Amino acid sequence: MKIDDFPENIRPFILPELKGHLVYRCLGCGLEHNIKKLLYTCPECGKVLLIYDLNFDRLKQIPGETWRRIFDYRKMVSIPALKGIFRYHEFIGPVIPLDSIIYLGEAHTPMVEANAAMQEKAGIKFYFKNDGQNPSASFKDRGMASALSYINHLVKNGHISDVLAICASTGDTSAAAALYGAYLQPHIKSAVLLPHKKITAQQLSQPLGSGARVFEIPGVFDDCMKVVEALSERYNVALLNSKNAWRILGQESYPYEIAQDFEYDLSNKVVVVPIGNAGNISAIMSGFLKFFEIGIIETLPKIIGVQSEHANPVFKYFLEPDVTKRKFFPVVVKSSVAQAAMIGNPVSMPRVIHLAEQYNRLAEKVSVFVVQVTEKQIMDWELIANRNGHIACPHGGECLAGIIEAKKGGLITSQDVAVLDSTAHTLKFAGFQEMYFSRSFPDEYEISYDDTLINVPTLVNPQDLEKLPAPGKPLIGDDFQIFVDRIAEEIAKNLDLKKV
Ligand SMILES: *Cc1c(COP(=O)(O)O)cnc(C)c1O
Ligand SMILES: [Zn+2]
Q1: How far away, in angstroms, is 443 Cα from ligand 1 center?
Q2: Please, what sign has the CA dihedral across residues 216, 217, 218, 222?
Q3: Mean pLDDT by 10 residues, the chain (500 residues)
Q4: Domains and CATH numbers, the chain
Q5: Is the C-beta atom of 275 inside 6 A of ligand 1?
Q6: C-alpha 357 to ligand 2 mean position (Å)
Q7: Is 437 helix (H, G, I), strand (E, B) or coil?
Q8: 279 CA: nearest ligand 1 atom
């Protein structure tokens, strides 16, 4: 729809103005730093940063009701730059001109309501938000769209050149980084570091296909992260891990979409998210806080983070009920099917601590919780979800296992409505399903099998058939008919079909 056809009071707001004044703010010493340079940690004290808009209060001049209509009308415009995360431009990157924005089809992923059988099993109404339907098949595209759009803006303005974008990854970050980097050829080259043999074949194929330099190193993600940090401190590279605060801004589109999809009514809503490096849960808290401050939403929904027993440092931190006594300790991770969340020392932990405190304070009650689930629960609930029409990845299964734990623990009730983040597409993790169905998980995963969830193909190849078709050698005439009849008969017998 053309902007001229919109209501007069909305038209002036459809194209965003570049009125933001963004700064990096250190969560350690509180110092602010200019965004013209790419910074990942505070040059003064080395702690992590978040990006704040010093002009944020200008957004309050527009009433919440008007903002809601602006976003609703922006759904209808056909300007590519406003089609993805930048529908919420004023809240995500109000210094990035539209012609620097990269849009590869990310964001606005569907919220799919669970069927009656699933809601009964879970004891609560819930939706999966399918972030696996992003272009590289995980939510990481949201943060890459903002980070790479900003880098593109800096390149166009001559602030930086010859950028080598680099990241450590449990798989999905590298897939997303390489995809967006490939789009910006030849201005950007990308390199990714992956833990050798710790990511799936599908995830490895993605950065390779996008043309990134791929380095596999021994160890786990936390080891890759340390090497990438060393590189970004000593060499001229652009770090694309979620330490890069631009990633967090883009990922805030996720809570904005949830708000919009519920027509901005978030009472009794629960947002459930797996926690790895804790960038995603940070973005979810930060995004809801911004919409709340501007009056676009009137309620802060409950947020439930979920971790596997095999990688649970954030869960352990929140176990201590007395906020003043909480202390963070990294953990040594064990193998997990929630592989993208297999992180013992989350980079965004200071952000989580900072934002959860603020969130609970503004919600006027404790509204951020973390629960823990077993590897078996994760696998089983993923398989059950997918048998009921979803495309949940293990992390989606982890969220579903998480609401069941949360309900048992009294954190949520059957009056609540939950949105579960299926952070990636199930196909990225087909190998885990295969290991389950063939009962071949290595012991360290501590998976046991539920027979009713196992599904394997049945080969139909009756021994009495003399001639079989093969590629390039079709059967013809009677031979073909005999083949078709015999196979059909065998399948009918197997399925116990009744004759018509
Ligand atoms: C990165 C990732 C996570 C973990 O998100 P964090 O922001 O690191 O907490 C979970 N699921 C998938 C599929 C991911 O790619
Ligand atoms: Zn500092």
Answers
A1: 24
A2: negative
A3: 93 96 98 94 96 98 98 96 98 98 98 97 97 98 98 94 91 96 94 90 93 94 91 91 96 98 98 98 98 98 98 97 94 95 95 98 98 98 98 98 97 97 97 97 97 97 95 96 97 96
A4: 111-135+252-453 (3.40.50.1100), 139-251 (3.40.50.1100), 457-500 (no CATH)
A5: yes
A6: 19
A7: helix
A8: 7
